[in-house]
Write a structure and sequence with these properties.
three-stranded antiparallel β-sheet; 13 helices; 42% helix; globular; binds pyridoxal-5'-phosphate
Length: 391
């Protein structure tokens, strides 16, 4: 069926990939350069250094020409051996996929479940580690911001639980939908491998992913026996010493990354986080005013990069999203796994300002009406009132 013609710009309000700013698009469109020439070496050295500030680390950050899933595999394959026990917190769909990957790689995951309405259960992590007196568990894996639920885990508290148990396990954290949107501190929180992707807070198209690596993780990589080749940190870090890569890098995406990092630094990371916090709060006020339920049931775990909204029983979130796409040219995130058709997800991350948020919420409100989802009017007004009072 031919799609209705829409004037005006499409609203890409899924929780990533996010809207790519014009400055980044302009940077990417420059001619591809020789990735073994001197200009590339200078770009690489500069970028690899600047990137550390985004992860808040003094250590190395590895860049892969791959989606986030690749960086998940790199984290596990570089540090672990066949049969290693790993403690994984199943906070939602993405944590579930990471666990399935761990199984496929021949690891032995122990699962700590949640009801997908909150972040990782820190107490349960502490208990599992305290019981593991033989130190069989080699890594604790947590998704910082569960993109499927809009629930964020408290990485500082996970670190404290590991320390309280006196356990030597590595801490691996997926920040694919939180890095450069929500406060994150690789070094201060004692994270050993941070996994990240280009297509969300970093405001780039999909295609790059990252591992920030601690000294402890580098030491583990020397002992680890899972097969690794493409993902191996060692040739990557050796080439990175002079700004180069062991294979062809995503040259044009790196131009874009350079520009995106410059933009984040111009705004100031703390301001970037405050902007996301403020937009998330405005969104939650709109949802409450509509009389709808936020998927995250624990306010301490609210995500600042997206809000998942439950539709009333008997109604279809997918039908609502289809109406909003067709009538208002806006894409919203779908429900994943057990939340299929039960929630829609509003992405409010990346290159995003007050008026885009009001447009987004206006589109949701008109869609609720068009799809006959029971709700109260004036949710968008509640967001306007909040934003205007907190400019
Ligand atoms: C939290 C999280 N982890 C992992 C992934 C998988 O990343 P990718 O789809 O880039 O491979 C995603 C994708 O949205 C994600 O949101």
């Amino acid at each position: 069926m031919p799609q209705t013609y829409h004037a005006g710009r499409h609203f890409l309000q899924i929780p990533g990939p996010t809207n790519v700013p014009d400055r980044v698009l302009r940077a990417i469109e420059r001619p591809t350069m020789d990735h073994r020439g001197p200009a590339f070496g200078r770009l690489g050295l500069d970028l690899l250094k600047k990137l550390r500030a985004i992860f808040k680390t003094q250590g190395p950050v590895v860049i892969y020409p791959a989606s986030g899933t690749g960086a998940w595999e790199a984290a596990l394959a570089n540090t672990l051996s066949p049969g290693d026990a790993v403690l994984m917190c199943r906070t939602g769909w993405f944590a579930t996929l990471w666990r399935e990957m761990a199984e496929r790689l021949g690891l032995d995951p122990t699962i700590i479940d949640t009801d997908w309405r909150r972040g990782a259960d820190v107490e349960a992590i502490g208990e599992a580690l305290a019981k593991d007196t033989a130190h069989r568990i080699k890594a604790v894996c947590v998704v910082h911001n569960e993109t499927s639920t809009g629930c964020a885990s408290r990485i500082d508290e996970v670190r404290a639980a590991i320390d309280a148990a006196g356990h030597p396990a590595l801490l691996m954290v997926d920040t694919i939908s939180s890095l450069a949107s929500m406060d994150y501190r690789h070094d201060e929180w004692g994270v050993d491998v941070t996994v990240a992707g280009s297509q969300k807070g970093l405001m780039l198209p999909p295609g790059l992913s990252f591992n920030a690596v601690s000294a402890k993780a580098l030491a583990a990589a020397e002992r680890a026996r899972l097969p690794r080749s493409y993902w191996d940190w060692r040739p990557m870090l050796a080439a990175n010493e002079t700004g180069y890569f062991p294979y062809t890098p995503g040259t044009n995406l790196l131009y874009g990354l350079n520009e995106a990092v410059a933009m984040l630094m111009e705004e100031g990371l703390e301001n970037v986080f405050a902007r996301h916090d403020r937009h998330a709060e405005a969104t939650r006020r709109a949802v409450r005013a509509w009389g709808l339920e936020i998927q995250c049931a624990e306010p301490r775990h609210y995500s600042s990069s997206l809000t998942a909204v439950r539709v009333p029983d008997g109604h279809s979130a997918d039908a609502l999203r289809a109406v909003i796409l067709e009538k208002f040219n806006m894409s919203l995130g779908n429900g994943l796994g057990i939340l299929k058709d039960r929630v829609f997800r509003i992405g409010h991350l990346g290159d995003f300002g007050d008026l885009q948020l009001i447009g987004t919420l206006g589109g949701v409100e008109m869609g609720l009406r068009a799809a006959a989802i029971p709700h109260q009017p004036r949710g968008t007004q509640a967001a306007i009132d909040y934003l205007a009072g907190n400019a």
